[in-house]
Design brief:
Chains A, B: This is APC family permease. The structure is a homodimer of 608-residue chains. Chain A has 608 residues and is an alpha/beta fold. Helices cover 64% and strands 7% of the residues of chain A. Chain A folds into 2 domains: 434 residues, Amino acid/polyamine transporter I (Up-down Bundle); 133 residues, Rossmann fold (3-Layer(aba) Sandwich), CATH 3.40.50. A 5-stranded parallel β-sheet of chain A has the order 3-2-1-4-5, sandwiched between helices. Strand 5 of chain A pairs antiparallel with strand 5 of chain B, so a sheet runs across the interface.
């Protein structure tokens, strides 16, 4: 039944050779990998105004130079990541770049931050999208957390179905959103040009403001640059592109950067010209749309696509998280299970764990985005800084032809990213301190896991010089619970193995019962030695283990192996298992994990 | 770590021979087994008044004859159960009595009702106790469900620690409650006698009332008799008493009956004399206490002990449920696991399942007692009726000396119990219909389980005439994932078993990889045959199972056995298991449960 539900939700399994069909073309890739970055224009400009409003509305003209700063940062990031795509065509982004150029620990800082960040991407985007919906339909407000969780589950299932299929569904909303905002900006600018908007609403550029300081301006800049989260997704997902993958990825990156720049500039400019004041009830985009179109079809079209793209932005996380996990797992820093492709060729374990972690975050933070965004931004700009510093080192080391402009691009990017990161720690320490505790822990775990895998590999390797010690003989122990077909079946098997000794062991809870059993046994199996053990604490495992230890100790001296044969009857229907005490399962796990004996289970299948 | 927590909560394990020390003396038994019945006086009288108030306060004098009816019922129950204790000294109560005298199905109806009823005992009592607390401290009202759940968890842990230890803790509140109510009744009666209470508050006995009908009076009687729930607990728990168990149990039963009668009569009389009107905000007992003492120390003492005894009444369920479950499990109607004594000699599985079920009920009904009480009462009076009918049949069949008065006692009890049961169905059908659906289902399950156990027993039995077919030989299959120490270890073991054939099986996901492996194998283990299987869907189990099926089919024709030897390396620390794909575990479970092959796991313990 479980597998039928799985089929319905996930679809039929795909053969490994069908992998090629799942690769992305540029149009679909733009939709899948850009929704996070593009959706940020829904809140990025607002973040700038929220800081500036503390100086008064006259200070809003500062949003224009700040936006220029963000655009410079964006340009630096886009060109830097374009260079990374060609330098690292197998993907990996910040993790691979930092690891190769700055050393393992820098790579792990970047990788660790990004892993967490993709979870935050899902949690933040879905929560923000849900907020947009519940703002439109206030009666749903009480169910915010539930709705957000449903969206996460929906996205998880989509992604388990496979990347291309998700893309077909997800491409439309992204393009509709871009279309909606372009119409908004175009009509808005037309109204500005024709004078339909009074030109005296906003304070002119250069108006002197009391109390303005570099600190506040940098803070506004840092807040605004939270709109650039998601820019790195493409460089992590190059293997998902159709061939030639790096070229297609680079083109997609440039398209995305261009769209993001246009939308961001348009929104910031209109917000300034319309003199929009941010408030908690209505978003800046909603206010611009309202002033441009009134509350008609276009208004709801813009709001609807905004809500949709925010929810789908979460999908960036679903594309990027499993691929980053694969890179980390290949380097043995996280469990191997992230390497396994599922029935539909996606990395199912990564997708499922991302979904679960996002749900936990949503529940813990009650789907309140404002508490998550600063942490989210730091988790993005830390790897930005590291990957671009890594590129700096790379150019300095390799010095290929024409490396100087490339070096300058990456240096600019690294410096601005570093400043943004530091600004978050300086101005929002209360919300981001946890990353300072969390990162060392995760990096410690990465190293711990790597150390384990290395140790295992070392121990499993077959060394040529190792002397081969053959096994001299076998001792078989059969725990028996009564005189039944199951036991007979197991004893017959034991006898067929031509072992040197077979010992049946019976654990009794009462002295008389023990004696009675011994006598019955003598009549039934006179040729098999029976050992009875008395259990003080009604436990079978304790006395049995003690006995096995004794036998094993003696056997190992003569290079004999000890096999414990466990008779087990298997009911016809699996629900019937709860009617039987699973002693054999317990005995098996206990002996196998703690003792050096072979555990063999002889099934006796019941016929009714 | 888990076992350390368990030790802390539950205490050290006890030897089976320490069982005697855990037996109850009369004083402790009275406290443990009577709290349910005694606590009922906190709400029993109120239930009568709630029905009568529909006729007007002048009708309250009817509470006195109705109380007499309840007392007659109580007397009949007490004497009937006294006879049951001596007739069935090994406990079992309604289940055993009904089964032995009326047949299996009657027994199962009684047993099924009681099993559910003990869960309701816990849920109702804990909820009522919590209500008493939250009434005293209204700020806690929002947390009713949470508090109730904490109480259930607390009681579960207490009972897992063992019966006697619980008793030491639980004895005080019960006796304090009895003391508190005796003081209340004595002082109340003193005030009545000295004329401190105006004698004209209540309508005199015999005042004619308009609209009175036998139906309403019977309904009031049925409601009032919900105060007798819990009377049967002692007869179910005879094995828990110190020797001579039946005599001690009978004495305890009489003591409990006497206490219950005195408290019940006193409360009903004072309520009538004080002309207490039941209301939703304040209980009847609280009103009497208020009028007698005012809101001073004695008032809070009475309210506090009432709340405490209600919570502890739930403990009756913890004493009775596991013992009834043992009786049902011995007769193979419920899973065998209820027979196992835990570390502290209590029947842990019964205790834990009771606690979980009660928590589910509390959450489902949001700790609202009023919706649970009718179901609870029906679940009690159904087995009352059955067990006393059973006793009637017993006397008629056996006709021992002086059986006529005994027969009359049981007949009276049976008739009144039947009337009460029917009254609940007639007057509160909306709240009790579910038992008519639930009981047939549970009885069907009982029979289903019994049938399974019987079938298993039949199949496991060794028949003398059965021909013995010896195993002719062994084929060993070793799934291998690479060329490692683990595989070598397993192959050495396989070779030592002198099997007729050893086949290594490799499942490849890519064609080239397969070829490369075959060549490496030829150099490494030229004497072991290697079969490589190609997996289209990245699954190891599917191709492996298909191969095992082929081999098994051929082997079984020659009476050969197939053993699948699974190489498994065991990490040193158990957390490290999540770092490795548990393929061997999956393969093992799959083959063992679905195929007729022996599965042998060869552990390779890592040293670091």
């Amino acid at each position: 039944m479980f597998s039928a539900i799985k089929r319905f939700l996930i679809g039929r399994p795909l053969k490994s050779t069908e992998l090629g069909e799942q690769k992305l073309n540029k149009t679909k890739a733009l939709a899948i990998l850009s929704s996070d970055a593009l959706s940020s224009v829904a809140y990025g400009p607002e973040q700038i105004l929220i800081v500036l409003v503390t100086l008064g509305t006259a200070a809003f003209w500062y949003s224009l130079p700040i936006a220029v700063g963000v655009l410079i940062l964006l340009t630096a990031l886009i060109f830097s990541y374009r260079q990374i795509i060609f330098a690292y065509p197998h993907g990996g982004g910040a993790y691979v770049v930092s690891k190769n150029n700055l050393g393992t620990n820098a790579g792990l800082v970047a990788g660790g931050s990004l892993l967490v960040d993709y979870i935050l991407t899902v949690a933040v985007s879905v929560s923000a999208g849900t907020d947009a919906i519940t703002s439109a339909f206030p009666s749903l407000h009480a169910h915010t957390v539930g709705i957000a969780i449903i969206f996460v589950i929906f996205l998880t299932i989509l992604n388990l179905r496979g990347v291309t299929e998700s893309a077909s569904i997800l491409a439309y909303p992204v393009y509709l959103f871009v279309l909606a905002l372009f119409i908004l900006i175009a009509v808005g600018l037309y109204k500005v040009a024709t004078g339909a908007v009074p030109p005296d609403l906003h304070a002119p550029i250069g108006t002197p403001i009391a109390g303005v300081s570099l600190f506040i301006l940098l803070r506004a800049f840092a807040s605004g640059s939270s709109a650039l989260t998601g820019v790195e997704a493409i460089s992590n997902a190059i293997p998902n592109f159709k061939d030639p993958a790096p070229k297609n990825a680079a083109k997609t990156l440039l398209m995305m950067g261009g769209l993001l720049a246009l939308l961001f500039t348009g929104i910031v400019y209109l917000a300034y010209y319309y003199a929009i004041v941010p408030n908690a009830e209505e978003t800046v985009v909603s206010q611009i749309a309202d002033k441009t179109f009134g509350r008609g079809f276009m208004y709801f079209f813009i709001q609807g696509t905004t809500a949709l793209i925010l929810v789908l932005a979460a999908n960036t996380g679903y594309s990027a998280f499993p691929l980053l996990a694969v890179n980390l797992a290949k380097d043995k820093f996280i469990p191997r299970m992230f390497l396994i492709r599922g029935d539909r060729l996606g990395y199912s374990n990564g997708i499922i764990i991302l979904g679960l972690a996002a749900i936990i975050l949503i529940v813990a933070f009650q789907a309140q985005t404002e508490h998550l965004i600063p942490l989210y931004a730091v988790g993005v700009f830390l790897p930005f800084t590291l990957s671009q510093s890594g590129m700096m080192v790379k150019w300095l080391k390799e010095k290929p032809e024409g490396w100087v402009p490339k070096f300058i691009i990456n240096t600019t990017g690294a410096l601005i990213s570093l400043i943004v990161t530091l600004m978050f720690f300086l101005t929002k320490f209360q919300q981001v301190w946890s990353i300072l505790i969390f990162l060392p822990i995760i990096i410690f775990l990465f190293h711990r896991i790597r150390k384990h895998y290395d140790a295992v590999g070392e121990q499993l390797r077959i060394a040529a010089e190792q002397p081969h010690v053959p096994i001299e003989g076998n001792v078989i122990i059969v725990p028996v619970a009564g005189i039944t077909q199951v036991v007979e079946n197991s004893l017959n098997y034991a006898k067929s193995l031509s072992a040197d000794q077979i010992i049946a062991v019976y654990v009794g809870f009462e002295r008389e019962e023990e004696k009675a059993f011994e006598e019955k046994w003598k009549k039934w199996q006179p040729d098999v030695r029976l050992v009875t053990l008395y259990s003080h604490y009604r436990s079978i495992i304790q006395p049995l283990t003690k006995f096995v230890d004794t036998v094993e100790h003696k056997a190992s001296q003569h290079n004999y192996r000890v096999t414990v044969i466990i008779p087990q009857f298997i009911p016809k229907r699996s629900w019937e298992n709860i009617l039987h005490n699973q002693s054999s399962l317990l005995i098996r796990s206990f002996l196998l994990y703690r003792r050096n004996v072979i555990v063999s289970t002889v099934p006796y299948h019941l016929k009714k």
